Structures are given as structure tokens and as C-alpha cells.
TrEMBL record:
Belongs to the bacterial solute-binding protein 2 family. Residues 41-291 form the Periplasmic binding protein domain. It comes from Muricoprocola aceti. It is found in: Cell envelope. This is Sugar ABC transporter substrate-binding protein. InterPro entries: Peripla_BP_I (IPR028082), SBP_2_dom (IPR025997).
């Protein structure tokens, strides 16, 4: 049985500082629809579908139009798509970059066109090109997972599935590692393998298989997001090594909470893509109105485990 089928079967069982923005002419009442652009590193993660829907609701509710592009984890393609949206006349770009650094040519093009950029979830390297950043406190999310792990285990060999080009995941991993290393029992915890899972289910499943094929043993897996953690789970199940392994994700997705409800994973630091989208959209409108907005907006994460799962809706996102 392949990995996706394993997970599908289990899921089926689960189902039975302020900055000023450029001034813009604000028209009271009716106006010609403005075009907003949105691009996310992938649409293979339902998190981004919920994020986009929240933005779309706000934009369309204001009588405007939002167009979106899916670069499929390809930064060169994302840069090209941003240029296409600039040609279509967008006034605002909602950006979740594939690569925090090599997105810069597209950011420069936006600046030259006077387009407002709202950076979401994964922070770009050069922040001068963006009007505002809206994200979950990703470092704190990693801290929460580490603290929960250390409450459960006095010592552990840890596998980390990260994505170095995605700052949200990098910051989560750093928060986790810093918390472990700062503990009085830090010598009892060791990262025995660290491999890029691209933040995707299949890539993370493959990365976990590579690690297991090297003979690596572990008691803990930290996925940089929920799809990474679920990819690891599928591989561990395939190799019959999922017993007694704590699996942590970060997102608070319905899929992960379904696995949590079955006792197959350990915990996830939750975030609310709907809230991020709504805040990002409102920030964009404040910019268009020439108002000062916060340069960095951080939203606190929250830890979800079996112990408090009843406090959350399994099929939904957020609190």
C-alpha cells in the first residue's frame, strides 16, 4: 500500500513598528474595481486555500477583484507570474514567496510600478520592498513543540524535516532547536537527522524514507509544517516504525487534527490562515487609503495536543 493510500485510509477512519504607505486616491462609495494579485508558494497545501479565501472575501466585499497564481514551488515561475500580474494592472500584491531571497527581482518590479506588497507567512529577505509583513510567530511555534516534547520525554533522538528557503519553517525549526539547547537537560536530546522536506507531503515522505534507509533510529519527528509531519507519518507506517515515535507538525490543519484524534501523531502548533488573510487584506486597504500600518504583524500560535483537542473543531482551522 503506498503512502497516500495509507494516509487516505486513516483519514477515512477519522471521518467515520509602523510604516507609511504611498498615498492612493480613495473613492467614496462606488468605484471601478481595482485588481489585487495573490501568489502562494504552492496550492498543494489547504492552508493556502483558506488564506486565499479570506483575502478574496475581503477584496470582493469591497467591490474589487483578486487574481491568483500558483508557482508550484518554483521561484523563477513565481517571479514571471508576478510580472504578468503587474502587466494586468494590479494595485496590491499579496505575496507568499517560494524562496525568501530570489523573489527580489519581482519585488523590485513591484516597487518600480508603485504596487503595494503585503508579505504573508514567509518573510522576504529584503523587507524594504514590502509595505507590511503578516505572519504567525513561527519561532514561538517551534518553541511550543519543543516544550511539549520535553514534557513527554526525558531524552530523545530527533529527526527534523525542514525547508531552508522558507523562513516560516526555518524559524519554527530554530525555535525548536534553541529551546532544546537552552534546557538544563539539553545533552539528553540530539538531532540525529535533518533533511529538506520542501513543506510538502510527498517530499517529506521521501526524505523520511531516505533517513530510515540509512538506519537512523528516532523517538521524535518534527515536521516544519503539518504536511511534512503527515508525510513522515505515512513513511513510518509503511516501514512499520510508527509506534512510540512522537510526531509534531505546525499548522493545526484538519488533516493533522484527524490523525491526532486517532492517536497517530502527538501535537501541532496551530495558526489561523483565515485570520492572517483578513489582517493582510485590511492592511492592504489601509495602505491604499494612505494610512500608516504596522511594518510587522505577528499572530500568536497555540499548541494542540490530544489533551486539549476537544477545545478545537477538528474539521476547521483556527481556534
Amino acid at each position: 500500500m503506498n503512502r497516500k493510500m495509507i494516509l487516505a485510509v486513516v483519514l477515512l477512519a477519522a471521518a467515520t513598528a509602523l510604516t507609511g504607505c504611498r498615498a492612493a486616491e480613495v473613492v467614496e462609495g462606488e468605484h471601478d474595481p481595482r485588481i489585487f494579485g495573490a501568489t502562494y508558494m504552492t496550492r498543494n497545501n489547504p492552508y493556502f486555500d483558506v488564506l486565499h479565501e479570506a483575502i478574496e472575501n475581503v477584496v470582493e466585499g469591497n467591490g474589487d477583484i483578486v487574481i491568483s497564481r500558483n508557482p508550484c514551488q518554483d521561484q523563477e515561475k513565481q517571479n514571471e507570474q508576478i510580472l504578468e500580474m503587474l502587466d494586468e494592472g494590479i494595485k496590491v500584491l499579496f505575496l507568499n514567496p517560494v524562496d525568501w531571497e530570489t523573489v527580489e527581482p519581482a519585488l523590485k518590479a513591484c516597487q518600480e510600478k508603485g504596487v503595494i506588497v503585503i508579505n504573508m507567512d514567509t518573510v522576504v529577505k529584503n523587507r524594504e520592498y514590502v509595505a507590511s509583513i503578516v505572519e504567525t510567530d513561527n519561532y514561538a511555534a517551534g518553541v511550543q513543540c519543543a516544550e511539549d516534547m520535553m514534557k513527554r520525554l526525558d531524552k530523545a533522538r530527533i529527526v527534523v524535516l525542514d525547508n531552508p528557503t522558507q523562513t516560516s519553517i526555518s524559524n519554527r525549526v530554530q525555535g525548536f532547536i534553541d529551546t532544546v539547547e537552552a534546557s538544563a537537560e539539553s545533552e539528553n536530546y540530539k538531532v540525529v537527522a535533518r533533511k529538506c522536506g520542501q513543506g510538502e507531503f510527498e517530499d517529506s515522505a521521501d526524505a523520511m524514507a531516505t533517513i530510515l534507509n540509512r538506519g537512523v533510529e528516532c523517538e521524535v519527528v518534527l515536521g516544519g509544517n503539518d504536511p511534512s509531519a503527515l508525510g513522515a507519518l505515512a513513511t513510518l507506517q509503511q516501514y512499520h516504525k510508527d509506534n512510540d515515535v512522537l510526531i509534531y507538525g505546525i499548522d493545526g490543519s484538519p488533516d493533522f487534527k484527524s490523525m491526532l484524534n486517532l492517536g497517530l501523531v502527538t501535537g501541532t502548533s496551530g495558526q489561523d490562515p483565515r485570520q492572517i488573510g483578513e489582517v493582510a487584506a485590511q492592511t492592504a486597504y489601509d495602505c491604499l487609503a494612505g494610512k500608516a500600518v504596522e511594518k510587522y504583524i505577528s499572530i500568536a500560535p497555540y499548541m494542540i495536543t490530544q489533551e486539549n483537542l476537544d477545545d478545537y473543531e477538528i474539521s476547521g482551522w483556527g481556534r
